[in-house]
Give the backbone structure.
Amino acid sequence: MTVLHTQNMSICFGGLTAVMNLNLALEDKEIVGLIGPNGAGKTTAFNMITGVYAPTSGAVFLGDRNISGLRPDVISNLGIARTFQNIRLFRDMSVLENILVAGHQRLKSSLFASVVRLPSYHREERHMFEKARTLLEAVGLSDLEDEKATSLPYGKQRRLEIARALATEPSILLLDEPAAGMNPQESRELTDFIGQLREKFGLTILLIEHHMQVVMRVCERIYVLDYGQTIAEGKPEEIQRNERVIEAYLGGQDNA
Ligand SMILES: Nc1ncnc2c1ncn2[C@@H]1O[C@H](COP(=O)(O)OP(=O)(O)OP(=O)(O)O)[C@@H](O)[C@H]1O
């Protein structure tokens, strides 16, 4: 079952077509890679799927619903979450507080209930703490809940960022270069972690990544962009053999 697809999704910035006629489909619980050289249009594709930009032409569908151009918060509420290339944590907050803030959008209590602290709000708040702790346990950060977010080692900050995205209770998770800046040990752990996330949270995952070992190990299917155009789509072994891909991208990478 296709859970998300784009239909000839395109965007122009002035004279530059950053993404042209992208037809990408995610099947339920698939892990799919989106790769390509710098400036190929990968993050821009994420930005259109998550409502940061509206496509200039074409559309994004979540199930049967056309979500093109909806606001990012609306799209997040519909179950699409993302992480960013540069880690975006609340630097001075603890690990637990970072999760609590992210889960806030799922609160049902009214402003009035929270301001006068009605029992219903207390119940919901307690539930929020329980959920945040369950999430931290699931991503292996339980013992660090009181640490300042930025005091964590890099790999753990990435995990926390992913946990923050999960706090919005998504069904689809978009990861933008999660292995960026990681050492080989951390990126091996990340590969396993992404696989576990799908199982634990029943997620469909779309992954932008330059680290080819991570992509080839974790993705079941891969789309390759170059100058905004889709130059290949297929299984990892097909992509590795594809001449156009090798020429455009893999050939220039020493970690391919
Ligand atoms: N808001 C914008 N205004 C103008 N040009 C933009 C804007 N956003 C992206 N671009 C351009 O669109 C193209 C695609 O950029 P994008 O960031 O999507 O590439 P990418 O594949 O994610 O690259 P990288 O791997 O380096 O992150 C680039 O030429 C970029 O300069």
